[in-house]
Design brief:
- This protein is mostly beta strands.
- It has one domain.
- The protein is built from three helices and twelve strands.
- The strands form three sheets. Strands 3, 4, 5, 6, 9, 10 and 11 form a seven-stranded antiparallel β-sheet that branches.
- β9 and β10 form a beta hairpin.
- The chain is elongated.
Length: 186
Amino acid sequence: MKDIPHKNSNVVRCEKMYQENYLRVVDNEINPSAPAVSMIGGGSKIEVYKGFRKVTGATIDVIGSGAWVEGTLTGDLTTYAHEEIYKIYNLKENESADYWFIKYQKEKDHDELKKAFEETTTQSYHFDFKYRLQGNDYGITAVDLGFVTIRIDYEGMTKLFTVPNSASSRAKTNDGEDYPGGFEPI
C-alpha cells in the first residue's frame, strides 16, 4: 500500500483492491520512457501521468475467437474528485478521460489546474455498467478491467483522479497493454 501526502497533512491510502500503472504524458503522446511533462509557473512544477486502475475481481477469462460476450462491471471506489479538473476544460462528467489529456496538452497556462489540484478532496463513487468483450486470435486468455486515472504531481504531492465512468473504462492484458480484441461499454 502506498501513502500519498495530502495538502492538509492527512494521508490518503490507496485501497489494496486496485492496481495502478502510469505512463508519462509527453509531447502530445503517452511515452513510458520520456521525462514527464513539466509546466513551470510561479516557481512550481506540475507533472501529469496517464494511468490505469484495475478493479480487483474484474479479471475476465477470454474464450473463443471472434465471439462477443456481455458482462456487468459494478463496484465502489474512493479517489480524488475528477469533476474539479474536468471543469477546467469544460468536460462533462461522463466523457472519457482521454479528452482531458488532449485538452491538457493544448494548454500552456496551468494556473487553474494548480488551483483545482490544491482544493480538490476525495470522493466515493459507485460504478455500474454493462460491457461487451470479444474473443481474440492472439492467445490472450484473460483481461483486466478498470479505469483511466489522471495522476497529477504538484509541489511534492501526488493526487490520483480515477474516472469511473463507462467512457473511461478499459480492458488490459496481464502485462498492462491495451487488449487487442474488442471491448466496449454498452
